[in-house]
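REVIEWER CHECKLIST
Item 1: Sequence provided? yes
Item 2: Single chain? yes
Item 3: Sequence as submitted:
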Amino acid sequence: MAFTLRIGLLLLTRSPSVTAADGGNDTSQGRRDGWVSQPDGRGTFDILWSCLITIFLCTWVSLHLNVPASHEQYRHLFFRKMRWMVQAIMAPEFVLAFAIGQKVEAKKSVEQFRGLDLLRDNTFRTVDSAPSQRSLLQDAGGRVSSLINKIDMKLHGEEKDTRWSIRHAFYANMGGFVLHPRESAAFPINAKQLHWLIKQGYVEYPKMTAKEVWDKSKADGFQKSLTCLQTGWFIIQIVGRAIQKLPITTLEITTLSFVLCTLVMFTQWANKPLDVESPTVLTSSKSIAEILIEAGPAASQPFKQTPLDFIDNQSPSWLTEVQPHLRFRTGPRTRPLPRLTNDRFPVIGAGPDAVFLFLFTMAYCGLHFVAWDFSFPSLFERDLWRAASVTIAACAFIFWVCETYQDGHRLGRWERWYAKLFHDDRNGRINTMEKIRRNRRFIPVWEVIVMTPVTVVYTVARTYIVVEVFLSQRSLPVGAFNTVQWSEFVPHF
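Item 4: Structure as written out by the authors:
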């Protein structure tokens, strides 16, 4: 394709090893320096616009944050989402880890509530191991009566399926339910705390259907459709350029990594309501003091986050546990917490979800190796890119090794596996360990010592990659401005 050569409107910094040819910005090394317009092909603006709009949609639209506090204004929500957007740009694989971890917790909650759903469906229950004939007749009569009521409600269109679903679980774990005890301040609760309150009879089961939960979501179908169309078209262009052996820029490779992370995040957060502003308030006739007294010794310790810390203390969390040790805080400072923070570290376990996350993280880091032999403005920049690619892959691997070990240690997974492999009777030790699990430090000293330099090195390497993808636009191969010839994919007869 013929290109019209002219001086760009804006000349970016040039590599000292490349000199511009007379009369234009083509170079003797087959590169174009500076800003390139798009008369016959794609220009610098086309590359930047396509990648930036894709990155924005992938990071802004895909974020599903928790319910804000009642006193927060729009500016608080905006800047909080901006912070998470920056975090998604700097480390999208870690935001993906939060999404997978939240789905794992939601699935656990569904299993936990299944017993309560069965309990609510049974009108009569017997505690005798050998029930009498009269109790059996009562139970049968109760089931028949319950069935008749359900049929009548269905015929009149009044039946509501309020069974606990994964949408309920997501809604609860994002702070969708707020407990308001008698003569006590209201505070948010998660699914595990809600299950305990219902089981103890302090609150009623929330009679909300999955559809009613979803009605609270501000999910915009247009935004998600636009994101899917843009990301889909971006992938098609990258594949087309690869097939026709056209140069692909480092910015496009980095954008592709955001696209892949976004698609997986959409699948993990598919049932999580988006941008919920007002929670559901659950009242209790008991005061929080009465609830704690009746809970016994387990609730005797002072709480750090909410009065129901003895059920689930929202650990580990960056805002509430790590930042106080670093002498600065940007999270909620009032107690009980006015909202559930978004940065609770995911406890994924050692199941298929953990394996998938590890493999995807390594694949994401490995995607930067695609640009190993790309043409850079200078050899020094190419060497730095290679070093940064190796560094982020190594840091991610070290992080997951340390976190997997510590996660197994805090949950007693290694002791249980040892007992199964060597048939060692350690049930007493394991049970004791499980009882004191919540009193253990989720972030031990050794992990801080190891992870601090790893985090610093990863941040430096990742920062260089983010900066370099834009700096490299100042000098690109000539073929990078060629467009895909889609007509070549059409069969000619």
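Item 5: Key structural point noted by reviewer: The CA atoms of residues 251 and 470 lie 7 Å apart.
Item 6: Recommendation: ____
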